[in-house]
From TrEMBL:
<keyword id="KW-0408">Iron</keyword>
<dbReference type="GO" id="GO:0003678">
    <property type="term" value="F:DNA helicase activity"/>
</dbReference>
<dbReference type="GO" id="GO:0003677">
    <property type="term" value="F:DNA binding"/>
</dbReference>
<keyword id="KW-0234">DNA repair</keyword>
<dbReference type="GO" id="GO:0005524">
    <property type="term" value="F:ATP binding"/>
</dbReference>
<keyword id="KW-0227">DNA damage</keyword>
<keyword id="KW-0238">DNA-binding</keyword>
<keyword id="KW-0413">Isomerase</keyword>
<keyword id="KW-0411">Iron-sulfur</keyword>
<dbReference type="GO" id="GO:0046872">
    <property type="term" value="F:metal ion binding"/>
</dbReference>
<keyword id="KW-0067">ATP-binding</keyword>
<protein>
    <submittedName>
        <fullName>DinG family ATP-dependent helicase CPE1197</fullName>
    </submittedName>
</protein>
<dbReference type="InterPro" id="IPR045028">
    <property type="entry name" value="DinG/Rad3-like"/>
</dbReference>
<feature type="domain" description="Helicase ATP-binding">
    <location>
        <begin position="66"/>
        <end position="328"/>
    </location>
</feature>
<comment type="similarity">
    <text>Belongs to the helicase family. DinG subfamily.</text>
</comment>
<dbReference type="InterPro" id="IPR006554">
    <property type="entry name" value="Helicase-like_DEXD_c2"/>
</dbReference>
<dbReference type="GO" id="GO:0016818">
    <property type="term" value="F:hydrolase activity, acting on acid anhydrides, in phosphorus-containing anhydrides"/>
</dbReference>
Length: 646
């Protein structure tokens, strides 16, 4: 264009590389004439043209399908229309809403449907459905399945974790080790055109099928599809986590994109994890030894870092922990130098294999990233275990960073059955006074659930004495009302202690147990054990806050009762006490912020597994004397407050 406008025969074009740490620049200049540049441009346009044509046709078909789309169920449940209308209004007005809506109301479809309709009205271009767990991702996919059956034409992509979809056993992501990475960019355009032309629901199985067909990495494929899709179903971290967020997405398009944050109560602790970072002494000591005589820059730098850890270890004695109110500038500079040296080593044409160097490089990068966020909402502490030293930048209050990560999007919809107390969650998720707040009462009657409180102490010091009474209560409950029960415990240790006593009783009742690190198939088997055939009783032992305490839908007689042991308080520990002290220093109730509210949220989620429809009935048994205290009763749902005391 410049050549033609100025009637020139040729022009110099320049590509500049900048070394980010040193600022060193390298320039490559080439001279090109009019015909050469025209040919290059036409080649690029010819590659992009089929995609542009496909997208244009897709948008026309999508918008017409949305115009004709009706709510996929015969009628709205009580409160469902109110939620859907509030979400639509929030998007239309480019606001933020915090919506507390009870389990069983149909929150997923009530947030997705109005968002789809808003796309049809050109209020937005795309929306993300963000979840914390696989089960809630599947619920979102099922909601779209209902809409597809009603005629919706949209591209909906689900991003699955890399380690779950990788086709290679080793999981090494480079072209030397993986045929799906080798030549990826030569084949990806055709793969994208193929799948978008033929599919609407781009879930894991669909993406894997086309990834095999076109020999492309399924994970990278899903990320590339996220640019083209109308909706993306994925984990929180793709938006909020500075390590893995989709930065190449939406710097220009966020203003036309909406965030639907499901089970938003989980984002508080997830946010803390995302905005915290840890470095250990051991890798630097090992790298110091490994690179001696091989790369003196890495060797010398790791020696300095190891020496720094040793000084901290001496400083921490005898308490084994030491806190720092400010970041350690000397340490951070050494980490920055390590990143530079490691990068050069890893980018060599014939790099020596060092998995440890790569892992430590990523950990150091994250440390440096978090150090730039460090302020009064963080604390830096060191923990010493024998010769090992761990340094951690711990995010005490993630609210500002959560707010900052979402601020450039058009609208944000935070919703959950357990955003209670709402003021706490608005505070912790970065809410403002002018944000919308919606509280929808339960559509279900208190008569549907028989709520019983057994005032038994389950405090740590009393747990040994509580085991036999809990087993006795469980046995009596099932004998009185046979059926399928889930019993939740605050820890695996407590669960196993009660399970051992339960098994000694030889009750003859089939019992299944949540294990640590269960695979998706094992979780599915666990849930499939709950059958509504009336063939007998079943007891499932599970952990509060785990995969079976939320996002699980066991309708009808698949679940007849939920028993919750304890009030869900996190175990008293160093980090929880840091959180408590931080919020106490800001004039809030630090104990409630660190322990009570997160704990009771787990209780409410677990109890919410029982009543999922107007036809469901059953028993909720809360075992702990603290449920009789005013503070804890105030946090119970209204439909639970007509309880009896055992």
């Amino acid at each position: 264009m410049y050549l033609q406008e100025h009637e020139l025969d040729c022009i110099d074009i320049q590509l500049t590389y900048v070394q980010k740490s040193s600022g060193e620049k390298k320039r490559f200049i080439r001279t090109r004439n009019n015909s050469e540049l025209k040919e290059a441009i036409m080649n690029m346009v010819s590659v992009f043209a089929p995609y542009a044509k496909l997208r244009l046709g897709h948008e026309l078909k999508r918008n017409q399908s949305i115009k004709d789309l009706e709510f996929p169920f015969t009628q709205y449940r009580k409160g469902q229309r109110q939620l859907a209308g509030s979400v639509y209004k929030t998007i239309q007005e480019e606001k933020t809403i915090f919506a507390s809506a009870p389990t069983g109301i149909g929150k997923t479809i009530s947030t997705i449907f109005p968002s789809v309709k808003a796309i049809g009205k050109n209020h937005l271009k795309k929306f993300f459905y963000l979840t914390a767990k696989t089960t809630t991702r599947q619920t979102a996919e099922e909601a779209f399945s209902h809409l597809f059956r009603k005629g919706l034409h949209m591209n909906v992509v689900t991003i699955t974790a890399k380690d779950k979809v990788c086709f290679t056993e080793q999981g090494i992501c480079n072209k030397e080790h993986c045929e799906f990475a080798n030549g990826y960019y030569d084949r990806i355009n055709e793969a994208i055109l193929d799948i978008l032309h033929n599919e609407n629901s781009l879930d894991r199985l669909c993406i894997e099928k086309y990834a095999v067909k076109h020999r492309v990495c399924p994970f990278e494929f899903s990320l590339d599809l996220a640019y083209a899709a109308d909706t993306v179903i994925c984990d929180y971290n793709y938006i909020f986590d500075p390590k893995v967020s989709l930065k190449r997405l939406f710097d220009d398009h966020k203003k036309e994109t909406v965030l639907l944050v499901d089970e938003a109560h989980n984002l508080v602790d997830r946010g803390r994890d995302m905005f915290s970072s840890t470095l250990d002494k051991a890798p630097f000591l090992q790298l110091k030894r490994e690179f001696k005589g091989r790369n003196e820059n890495i060797h010398g730098n790791c020696k300095q870092l190891n020496d720094f850890f040793i000084r901290i270890r001496k400083q921490a004695e005898p308490s084994k922990t030491v806190e720092f109110k400010e970041s350690l500038s000397e340490f951070n500079q050494l980490v920055l130098e390590f990143i530079d040296h490691a990068e050069k080593e890893l980018l060599r044409e014939s790099p020596r294999d060092s998995e440890l160097l790569l892992e430590t490089y990523f950990a150091a990068q994250n440390w440096q990233r978090i150090s730039k966020l460090f302020d009064e909402r963080f604390i830096l502490y060191a923990e010493v275990q024998r010769n090992e030293v761990k340094l951690k930048q711990f995010c005490l209050d993630p609210s500002y960073l959560i707010k900052n990560a979402g601020k450039n999007f058009k609208s944000r919809v935070y919703f959950s059955a357990t955003l209670s107390p709402i003021g706490y969650y608005m505070d912790m998720l970065g809410g403002d006074e002018d944000d919308y707040v919606l509280r929808i009462p339960s559509p279900f009657s208190s008569d549907q659930s028989n709520v019983i409180i057994q005032p038994l102490s389950t405090r740590y010091k009393d747990r040994e004495n509580s085991i036999k009474p809990i087993v006795k209560t469980l046995s009596e409950t099932i004998q009185t009302n046979p059926g399928n029960y889930l019993i939740f415990f605050p820890s695996y240790q407590y669960l196993n202690s009660v399970l051992e006593e339960w098994n000694l009783g030889n009750h003859g009742i089939p019992t299944i147990v949540q294990g640590t690190g269960m695979t998706d198939a094992e979780r599915e088997t666990f849930l499939d054990s709950f059958k509504a055939d009336g063939s007998g009783s079943l007891v499932g032992f599970a952990v509060l806050g785990g995969v079976f305490s939320e996002g699980v839908d066991l309708k009808g007689d698949r679940l007849n009762g939920v028993i919750v042991v304890g009030v869900g308080l996190p175990q008293i520990g160093f980090e929880r006490d840091l959180i408590k002290h931080h919020f106490s220093s800001t004039g809030k109730n630090g104990y409630d912020y660190a322990y009570v509210y997160p704990g009771m949220n787990k209780v409410l989620q677990a109890g919410g597994r029982l009543i999922r429809s107007e036809e469901d009935t059953g028993t909720i048994l809360l075992i702990d004397d603290r449920y009789l205290q005013r503070k804890y009763q105030s946090l119970l749902p209204d439909v639970w407050k007509s309880f009896t005391v055992k």
